[in-house]
């Protein structure tokens, strides 16, 4: 039996290993990817926010807080009242201490979370009315940098 493991962010290739981990071969598959320069998402809860495409009542986004004070804002639309769970966590080798905020369509703060379950990740679970919402991804004290993943679940 053989398996594979992705290398950390910023590397290219796949490590192949045996099921008993006794032998490791050099990467045989090269993966090229593009990491855009600069801030890729607006910092404010406005219509310019990046849309979270929802499929099967879920959406996932990956991103990077590039500079101190950076916030990445996403938007999603609920067509009916729903229970929504948002999970925000550091990704890969990042040690980002996340801070999650949810805003209404008018830009009013609905809820926020810094540390969930004694971790540096963030989580919100709420019942929301139909409408447009904005999710702000940030770091605690707006000082951290690093990669994150944002998960949206609707039930």
Structural class, from helix and strand content? Answer: mainly beta
Gap from first CA to last CA: 38 Å
Estimate what percentage of residues fall within beta strands.
Answer: over 45%
Which radius of gyration do the C-alpha atoms yield? Answer: 18 Å
Helix content: under 10%
Q: Average pLDDT, to the nearest integer?
A: 81
Oligomer: single chain
What is the H/E string?
EEEEEEEEEEEE
Provide the spatial order of strands within the biggest beta sheet: 4-6-11-8-9
Uncertain parts: 1-19, 23-35
Major sheet attributes: 5 strands, mixed
Overall body shape: globular
Number of helices: 0
Q: Would you write up a description of this structure?
A:
By secondary structure, the protein is mostly beta strands. The protein is 0% helix and 48% strand. It is built from no helices and twelve strands. The strands form three sheets. The chain has a five-stranded mixed sheet with strand order 4-6-11-8-9, with no helix packed on it. A hairpin with a 5-residue loop joins strand 8 and strand 9. It starts with a strand and ends with a strand. The N terminus is likely disordered.
Topology of this structure?
Layout: E1 2-6, E2 14-18, E3 24-25, E4 50-51, E5 58-65, E6 72-78, E7 82-90, E8 98-103, E9 109-113, E10 122-128, E11 131-139, E12 146-154
Parallel strand pairs: 4-6
Antiparallel strand pairs: 1-2, 2-3, 5-12, 6-11, 7-10, 7-12, 8-9, 8-11
